[in-house]
Amino acid sequence: MKKIIWIYLIFVSQLFFAQQNNQLWKGYFSYNEIVDVESATDKVFAATQNAVFSKALLSSDLTIYNSINGLKPESITTIHHSELTNKTFVGNTNGLLLIINSDGSITTKVDIINEVPVPPNKKKINDFYEHNGRLYISTDYGISVVDVATSEFIITYFIGTSGEETQVLQTTVLGNEIYAVTRDFGIRKGNLTNPNLYDFSQWQTFDGGYWSGIVTFNNELIGMNTNARTYRYNGTVFQEILNHIQAGLKIKTNGTELIVTTSNHVYVLNQIFTQLANITSIPNFNAVFTAATVVGTKLYIGTEKDGLFSTDITNPTVFENMSPNGPVRNYIFRVKKALNYLWAVYGDYTRQYNPYPLEEYGISKYSKDDGWELIPYNDIFQAKSVCDLAINPNNQTQIYATSYFSGLLKIQGSTIELFNQANTGPNGLESLGSNPSYIDVRINSPAFDKNGNLWMTNVATEGTIRAIKTLRADGQWQSYSVEDVTNDAFGRYGPMAIDKNSTKWIPTINDGLIAFNENYNNKFIVLNTDSGGLPNNDVRCVAIDNRNQLWIGTFAGLRILPSIDRFITETELTANSIIIQEGDLAQELFYQQTILDIAVDGANRKWVSIADGGVFLVSANGQQTIYQFTKSNSPLPSDNINDIEIDGVSGEVFFATDKGMVSFLGTSTKPSDDLANVYVYPNPVRPEFLGTVKISGLTDKANVKITDIEGNLVHETTTSGGTIEWDTTAFGKYKVASGVYMIFVASEDGMDSTVKKVMIIR
Known about the structure:
Layout: H1 2-20, E1 25-28, E2 34-39, E3 43-48, E4 52-56, E5 62-65, E6 76-82, E7 87-92, E8 97-100, E9 106-109, H2 111-115, E10 125-131, E11 134-139, E12 143-147, E13 153-157, E14 168-174, E15 177-182, E16 187-191, E17 204-207, E18 211-217, E19 220-225, E20 229-233, E21 238-243, E22 250-253, E23 258-261, E24 266-269, E25 275-279, E26 289-295, E27 298-303, E28 308-312, E29 315-321, E30 334-337, E31 342-345, E32 363-367, E33 371-375, E34 386-391, E35 398-405, E36 407-412, E37 415-419, E38 441-448, E39 454-458, E40 468-471, E41 477-480, E42 497-498, E43 504-507, E44 513-517, E45 523-527, E46 539-544, E47 550-554, E48 557-561, H3 566-569, E49 579-582, E50 585-588, E51 595-600, E52 606-610, E53 614-618, E54 625-629, E55 641-646, E56 652-657, E57 660-665, E58 679-681, E59 693-696, E60 703-708, E61 713-718, E62 723-726, E63 739-746, E64 753-760
Antiparallel strand pairs: 1-57, 2-3, 3-4, 4-5, 6-7, 7-8, 8-9, 10-11, 11-12, 12-13, 14-15, 15-16, 16-17, 18-19, 19-20, 20-21, 22-23, 23-24, 24-25, 26-27, 27-28, 28-29, 30-31, 31-32, 32-33, 34-35, 35-36, 35-38, 36-37, 38-39, 39-40, 40-41, 42-43, 43-44, 44-45, 46-47, 47-48, 49-50, 51-52, 52-53, ...
């Protein structure tokens, strides 16, 4: 049954996406985690795990390739730019080959994935080497060869001593000989003029040592050994030219310089092996190096977490960060939209709520005017694993961030405070366990109630289990015990929701869903598999919709509580599944699926994130699937979405994934109070525009009529939320002709109205 549902949903979403052509998507990627750099005559290329960017040397031109414009990698390992064809080749961990063509289009090659007969975990692309119009691809199984001009695969060489696959780290050509550094068999070589080179017996061991890289430089072989030294081959033996102390990560040459990169050193040598530069650090950064190259007199250094830097080889004292503006890293765990800023945090925890290894990142914020800005780790008192955020609805300049190790942060402008077990009093925050020498203050699920009180959960102290905490609007702390309703002494709680009655709905990992309201004599109700109708006691997320229904996402399915008000009058609550009809079959919506997050838009529709399944948009009642976005049919960089956040004003929907954040410009915004600010866009609609016309600033349940200039009706609808879209057709039958079209809007009661115009150019 589950397969039938998914096939239908995928069909619907792919139809829609093909029509939209990425125009409604936007990327918010990090470009700090550099995996490779590559030189060209007039530009430098850099690759992160899921993007490639290039910077022109003589101008400020910056070109970015990511999932928004069609570059959809699995996980990038290496890149190569061909000067001959102006193509850029991008290798991935799973063998995927992506090619950025000279016109900016993207070609996807799956030959390694589909045709090379080795296990999937042995298809990683490690390096590229171009020679005489052919690209030699070093992989975890051997060498594959591609025609650079046509991008077609030619042949694959398995060069183990018995013909088995072997990990090839790097290749190079000197004369007619191709040399390959292998993990298991030293340096292997073959003659390129040999028509039988596909036969492993035609390859021989050139050197049986332990090598990690090889290049041709100044008409000599240069090898990087695992003993942290680099050697030249003089025709008889290898002679040491560089002791780089640490294991070498990359060895490259641009023809005139030799570049060796380790985690803490970048060495540049000239053609007589004189050291031109030895970079050991970048001022104001604790940088770990990953790759480097030289273009002209400039040295470009890629780092593990801090981006791409350039400096002058002759005077390497000033370093310029070359990475495009973006968040600190691509793995964003939670994101929250305030009035003027989008806030993001990077700390996380496992499904079992284990925060280790502890993350030591700061907090990022984004605005259209200033781009991405970082509050550094040191400025937040070195709070580790910052995992969630809450915006004070009464003062959106006041931000609270929870750390799953260090406590609670309050951010207001440049003023930052840290609350923990030491400064919140006897009713405040508590450290995990009873050992006073071990401080571990695990705070999660921050949320404000209607009175401006901030609620959160605290991993329980043994014996008390005072897991529910509140920082009241007057600055006082208070604790509430959950000892009578949970069997989990460790106290692992997911993001809570607070309804209009101030009832707190708190997900747990083992005990289902806890509902609590201190205003009703500290009343608790628990929904679980035994009492409450849940399919699983591991509740991942909750969301309250515009009809006072509670949507509950669990590890194994979805449930709906018909009315949150029932908590006040009843002692037990039961949630229901959503049954949808597919032909003659009745199906449970999201049956046995792990629900990661649920967000409600302005039209009461639900965005639902599924583990390994992307994101769905379903109608207000769940009976209709409007979109399904996955990595395969959209710019989503991953099918695992950690968090969904909606800008109620613009309708922009943010998807924070484990491989970067993107957004989709939705059509459902919060309804306006009146029709004073109705806005139509784009206007005019030009021939090249493939999307839909948006009409925003609408009141809820307003009537919208669109006519041509002669008064002929072409579209009519009633709003749900603050925005509608029109596909510029006459009742879905055919595209309307060029001309001016009138838009008549009237409120539900007819007391407010407005008229707008839109010009369409075909």
